[in-house]
């Protein structure tokens, strides 16, 4: 797990939450770096929403600390909340308000000044393609548009952290695809934490996934290379030790591991590089060293396998 | 301060865009007008004592209906999470909701003042008890609104909030009756909790600091309780 507090926008340290006698979050620690999209994955009741609510200041942790952009959510709640844009599950909104009226209301609460307020609301509406809906009452909007309004309000004030709780819940397939594209487009410029109990959703939008079960963090793994990093699977014919040494010596290669030694007709290697564009350099190095490059592909983590590996039989046992 | 104004305007709009507000004000004016006319023609005296008591009893029933949605509706619809995760203090939320409910009460009191105006035009009333009566009604209404807000923060069901607030208000109104059955010092304590006991002097023209203090303490205690409810999560 990458935890470099120097660039981390979100830091959870031994975060614990009790609901009466029930332990909802059990000493969870993680960090999310600037510009990263972190997915929280876990079955219903695994503590995802509780963790999000602690970071938004809606819940107080029983113990441990949660910091947003260097502001403790308990000791400095207003500053921390001011740096979070939050879309709760099911996007609760004031159904009697118009779209623009609601965004202006939320903008004022986020202390946007009168000149900046109109510009910020207009920009958020443009980004979420809500201009044609500006005077429509929120109660009359479809589920997908309501979700967009909720995200638009979260973007007001340009917070460094966006927290999206089950953002694709209840959307139709077209809306789900739009929502994924939107989340991906928002990543990079700001840090995003997104939750889902659906594996495929996290896999499609997140850079890294933290898997939770019964309030415990089982592990955090990169799904796709953060930023511009690359991961490739290569089938290379040749002596294994020499191939590994050859790959390790390629500039920009971070790690080499044997993926599947039984692969026919040659073993497969997983190669992590600093930049996705180094695929060509890696391929050239293999061929130039006289090895047979039989296949090369860009890969992402097999999230399903990872989830099953980390949770083991615990979900079944818990039932 | 700006958050308070923003929240207050939102609450005012929610209250005055609802048909409930107009139904409440309409029914209140009808009943108060009926009482005023009846008392005027039966007693032929230029005073509003009975109108004040009638208004107080109506407030016991009406104000819980005004306050029932204040926090319960936000909790039910989930918008409380939006509010409490914005950079807003719990105090600002509570004060805005309390002030908004008082606006409607203020409107009802202002319209009740037309009765005093009629007396002023056609007779020569003693203005002291009229002023004190209105002050007493305002303090009573504010205390009931604060109680309603506190109860509304405990549930997500508006009907439950209204019924419980009504029950608490009515119980406090007539709690002095049970005081006569209790031994010393509980009789004094319970009698001093009575809303009617503290309201009656205002309605009859006597303003005691202890009565003003009682209502202010009830208001402050309920507002602090509401804040505590929002903060404890």
Describe the structure.
- The complex is a heterodimer of chains A (319) and B (233).
- With 319 residues, chain A is an alpha/beta fold.
- In chain A, 33% of the residues lie in helices and 29% in strands.
- Chain A has eleven helices and 14 strands.
- Chain A has helices at residues 48-56, 77-81, 99-109, 114-127, 143-155, 173-186, 199-205, 240-248, 279-288, 303-311, 314-318; strands spanning 8-19, 22-33, 37-41, 63-68, 71-72, 84-87, 161-165, 191-196, 208-213, 216-222, 230-237, 253-260, 268-273, 292-298.
- The relative contact order of chain A is 0.13.
- In chain B, helix 3 runs parallel beside helix 7.
- Chain B is an all-alpha fold.
- Chain B has twelve helices and no strands.
- The interface between A and B is medium-sized, with 26 and 20 residues.
Which keywords apply here?
heterodimer, A: 319 residues, six-stranded mixed beta sheet, four-stranded antiparallel beta sheet, 11 helices, 29% strand, B: 233 residues, mainly alpha, 12 helices, 82% helix
The outline of chain B comes out as globular
**What order do the SSEs of chain B take from the amino end to the carboxyl end, as H and E?**
HHHHHHHHHHHH
Most extensive chain-chain interface? A-B, 26 and 20 residues
Quickly count the helices of chain A. Answer: 11
The number of helical runs of chain B is 12
Instruction: Label the structural class of chain B.
Output: mainly alpha
- Low-confidence runs of at least 5 consecutive residues of chain A: 1-6
Low-confidence runs of chain B? none
Anisotropy-based shape of chain A: globular
Number of strands of chain B: 0
Share of residues in strands of chain B: under 5%
Oligomeric description of these chains:
heterodimer
Return Rg of chain A in Å.
22 Å
Structural class of chain A: alpha/beta
Strand content of chain A: 25-35%
Overall average residue pLDDT of chain A: 86
Compute the average pLDDT of chain B: 93
Report the end-to-end length of chain B measured between terminal Cα atoms. 24 Å
Summarize the main sheet of chain B.
none
